[in-house]
Task: inverse folding
């Protein structure tokens, strides 16, 4: 870990030093200009790293926000003769309003509809810029003043260079802080779907909107810089081709890596310019042959290095593990109400003509383990999803800790103190075991985006990670906390899910087939963990096919068949029931203790 940390700091220092020395060296002005355009593009691509690489939201419209930033400052400076700094504020304000409106309209779209939606509004804005008289139509605006820092005008490539790259490096640092935070974990959890983060109490739409707004603001900032560097603005800055180019840079460099934004922008910008010089000499004719070369490069990278050029650096590009300081996280007291902790009455669910769950009744008391069993198709998983808010019931009621929670969202039920695991393990494989588990503690923190960006959330962050480490120790995974979660065995992944659920500080834990696919030794370890949790006062509802595990750890068992309740009783009563044996078990079970 120390070696990786040293490497990362050394690489970062080397990049900053090289950027700082470049204008002082006897390099041609051409290369200063190229690096300025690389820096501007890097800002846009940093936004795409957050939006597409981290949050999994593909946008073909980022150049539209570049256009907003450029045209806002262009109009204020050329037409109204105001300061470029007022132009920056205006561009960012318009960007927030426009991006928020677009986000509310498009971020609920799924699959290919979201990229198509971004293409639609990106193209629309291009034609708005090109057909607006006040913005110079397709000729654009010319004569923008240079940016000034006090009495110093940044009117040359070299003077602009330092200011630009200071902005780029600060933006990358801020984004790094953001990703290494409670907010960053929530954003990374979006990529593999919303079911798991919602079950951890995370408002997934809110974090999609945050990613969209931050990416838009970075693009708008790039537009402001480009406008005052070129001293002119035209609709090409917001074209679909430009948007595709930025996305291409992100993929080439490494779409999920901050370093990939630098690598992708530099490689694409410089190689594109060189190819336009070299290829006509090689072919003897003019044409956009560089597009063919980039297409081949993209295919090769997708086949051989899906993490892009920066990802090929391996350990140099790996995230740095952070030491966990033992800081106690405030644990709100959850007092079980009088009566059953969970009360299910007349619960039913109909899918068109299929009645999957039909009038199911059962209770779970505080501090007990209840098994929910039945043959395949009995309605166990549907019942589980009705209780946890994944599905709305067609009839019946669910009461948890004295509160009627029928029809509540999964996020609201998680806030009430009910946590769950999943039949098929759901985690973020690229994140460490510790970070995956810390997702469960998300709602127990309160630091927002600004605090994360400025690094003001470090004390709270230490508390959240300390809580995650404590829960990992509770289930026996403390020694693997810094491993990528995808490297764990299936048994350890299921224990990870239990630790993550425990981070929510639940009073009731719902486990969906936690023993599925486990080896015998792993099942024994799981049984011991469940007994320890029960001894600590946590109630558990267990959906499971492994009858040996169910009979050995549960206090009571609920048996379902064809969506109906067949029997409720102790393990011995269920084992002795002829109806249960006929419907499901077939023969008497060995190993009941």
Result:
């Amino acid at each position: 870990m120390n070696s990786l940390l040293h490497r990362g700091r050394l690489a970062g220092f080397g990049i900053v030093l090289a950027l700082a020395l470049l204008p002082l060296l006897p390099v041609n002005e051409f290369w200063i200009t190229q690096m300025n355009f690389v820096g501007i593009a890097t800002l846009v691509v940093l936004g795409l790293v957050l939006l597409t690489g981290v949050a999994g939201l593909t946008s073909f419209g980022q150049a539209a926000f570049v256009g907003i930033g450029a045209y806002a400052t262009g109009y204020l400076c050329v037409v109204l003769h105001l300061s470029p700094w007022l132009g920056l504020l205006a561009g960012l304000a318009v960007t927030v309003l426009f991006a928020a409106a677009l986000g509310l309209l498009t971020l609920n779209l799924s699959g290919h509809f979201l990229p198509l939606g971004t293409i639609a509004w990106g193209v629309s804005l291009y034609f708005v810029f090109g057909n607006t008289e006040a913005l110079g139509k397709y000729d654009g605006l010319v004569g923008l003043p240079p940016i000034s820092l006090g009495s110093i005008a940044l009117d040359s490539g070299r003077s602009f260079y330092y200011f630009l790259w200071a902005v780029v490096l600060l933006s990358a640092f801020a984004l790094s802080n953001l990703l290494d935070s409670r907010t960053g974990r929530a954003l990374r959890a979006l990529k593999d779907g919303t079911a798991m983060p919602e079950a951890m109490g995370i408002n997934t739409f809110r974090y999609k909107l945050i990613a969209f707004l931050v990416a838009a603001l970075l693009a708008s900032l790039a537009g402001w810089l480009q406008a005052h560097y070129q001293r002119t603005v035209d609709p090409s800055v917001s074209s679909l081709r430009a948007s595709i180019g930025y996305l291409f840079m992100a993929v080439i460099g490494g779409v999920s890596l901050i370093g990939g934004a630098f690598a992708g922008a530099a490689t694409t910008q410089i190689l594109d310019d060189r190819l336009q010089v070299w290829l006509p000499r090689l072919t003897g004719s003019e044409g956009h042959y560089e597009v063919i070369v980039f297409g081949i490069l993209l295919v090769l990278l997708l086949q051989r290095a899906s993490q892009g050029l920066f990802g090929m650096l391996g350990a140099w590009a790996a995230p740095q593990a952070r030491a966990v300081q033992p800081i106690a996280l405030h644990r709100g007291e959850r007092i079980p109400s009088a009566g059953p902790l969970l009360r299910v009455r007349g619960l039913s669910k109909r899918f068109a003509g299929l009645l999957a769950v039909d009038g199911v009744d059962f209770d779970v008391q505080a501090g007990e383990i209840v098994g929910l069993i039945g043959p395949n198709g009995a309605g166990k998983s549907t019942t589980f999803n009705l209780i946890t808010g994944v599905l709305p019931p067609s009839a019946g009621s669910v009461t948890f800790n004295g509160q009627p929670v029928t029809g509540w969202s999964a996020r609201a039920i998680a806030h009430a103190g009910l946590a769950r695991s999943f039949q098929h393990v759901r985690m973020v494989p690229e994140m460490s075991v510790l970070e995956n588990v810390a997702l469960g503690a998300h709602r127990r923190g309160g630091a927002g985006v600004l605090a994360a960006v400025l690094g003001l959330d470090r004390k709270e962050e230490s508390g959240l990670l300390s809580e995650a480490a404590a829960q990992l120790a509770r289930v026996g995974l403390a020694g693997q906390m810094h491993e990528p979660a995808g490297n764990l065995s299936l048994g350890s992944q299921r224990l990870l899910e239990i630790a993550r659920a425990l981070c929510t500080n639940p009073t009731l834990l719902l486990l969906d087939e936690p023993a599925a696919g486990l080896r015998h030794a792993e099942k024994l370890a799981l049984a011991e963990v469940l007994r320890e949790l029960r001894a600590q006062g946590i109630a558990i509802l267990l959906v499971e096919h492994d009858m040996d595990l169910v009979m050995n750890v549960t206090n009571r068992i609920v048996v379902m068949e064809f969506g109906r309740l067949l029997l409720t009783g102790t393990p011995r009563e269920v084992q002795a029931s002829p109806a249960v044996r006929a419907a499901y078990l077939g023969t008497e079970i060995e190993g009941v203790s």
